[in-house]
Amino acid sequence: MVFSNQISFLLAFCLILTLVACDQANDSANINGFLVKESVQGTGGVFTENQIASPNSAANLQDVNNNDKKSNNEPVLSLKRKISYKKALACPKISPNGKFLIATTEGNYGIYIFDNTTSSLIGSVKENSRIGFNSYWSNDSDVIFYKEKVNNNWKVYTYSITAKQTKELTAVDHRTIQSLASAQDANDPLLFINENLQISKTTSNSTNSVVITKNQSQYYNPILSPKKDYVLVHSGSMINLLELETGDETSLVQGIATAWHPNKNGFIYFLDETNDGHSTSGSEVYYYNLSTRTSKNLTKTPYITEMWPSISGDGKLLTCEDEKTGNVLVYTLNILDD
User: Of the given ranges (35-39, 186-190, 280-284), which has the lowest mean pLDDT?
Assistant: First the structure.
């Protein structure tokens, strides 16, 4: 069995620099230190060849519990609920407070918002636009950040669940959207992939940026740590650890990292497999412990293809898509102490 690099290169393509957007706007207000304006026009967005399959016969999800036990006999990972929709769901992201969940559909179309306690759909954003892959939660679990290509320019928007209102952020670089969504203030680092596929750093109150990577690799999908001192970076099929201030880099493990654990020294990632070099034949979710430099398979379910995991702000819930069925799976998570 050969490990597939297909998803790695897909992500690299999705995160390559295209155009710098965010025109200055009048009639603006201030949200979280960024200029915004009421404006939602145009269609289009990031082209992402979504790898979710159409729904088929669902796997038997009863008793899907990881066999590895904690000392108190609680499973490390146990199925809590399954979220289904009339369309296949992909790339789910649970809100920091664990109450909501967003996902996109096949072809990266739209952002669908679910109540994570009832599994019911409570809203959607631009169902006909390819915006779902690059969507992220704010720290308060009320705002969804996403970007869209309008008239050949990238624009960054926010959608508030409570206000049901969409606003455009101006004077921001669309490439920084992932770290922008979690920024607490104007001095927090914002990361992006530059035109040379290196990782650069800036802040919302600066017009300058600095390259923080030292190697000549081609990078994609940088994920800033909760303490904003380290970055998970991807190069080829490898996940590397980058120290933000020094640029020192350490190669860790093969796979796609999706989130840091919020209160432990580690992160979650997934690793897909292929039998023919073209289609995904399986995928598992792992936890990587940075203290011990060891990986733990959290799922161990050959009949479920778990991909794109996300984790709640308290570290107690984990979500992922089942690529075979198009369902979103919600697990309770109990990581052993580091």
Answer: 35-39
Q: What is the domain class of 2-333 according to CATH?
A: mainly beta
174 with 156: CB under 8 angstroms? yes
Distances (CA, A) of 108 to 45, 90, 311, 324: 9, 8, 21, 17
DSSP 210-271: EE---S-PPEEEEEE-TTSSEEEEEETTEEEEEETTT--EEEEEESEEEEE-TTSSEEEEEE
* Measured distance CA(25)–CA(146) in Å, rounded: 18
User: Confidence class of residue 304 from pLDDT cuts 50, 70 and 90?
Assistant: very high
Structure tokens at 173: 């670089």
**Where does residue 149 rank: exposed (0-12), middle (13-18), buried (19+ CB within 10 A)?**
buried
11's enclosing H/E stretch is helix 6-15
331 closest CA partner among 63, 81, 119: 81
Residue with tokens 């089942």: 322
Q: Domain ranges in the chain?
A: 2-333
For 336, the token pair is 């052993």
Per-residue pLDDT tens for 65-105?
555 555 455 668 899 999 999 999 999 999 999 999 999 99
Mean pLDDT of 226-235: 96
> What is the identity of the amino acid at 280?
T
Using CA atoms, how far residue 253 sits from 91, 287, 337, in Å, is 21, 11, 21
Which residues are within 8 A (CB) of 125 and not within 5 positions of it... i.e. 6 or more apart? 110, 111, 113, 131, 144, 146, 159, 166
CB neighbours of residue 333 within 10 Å: 24
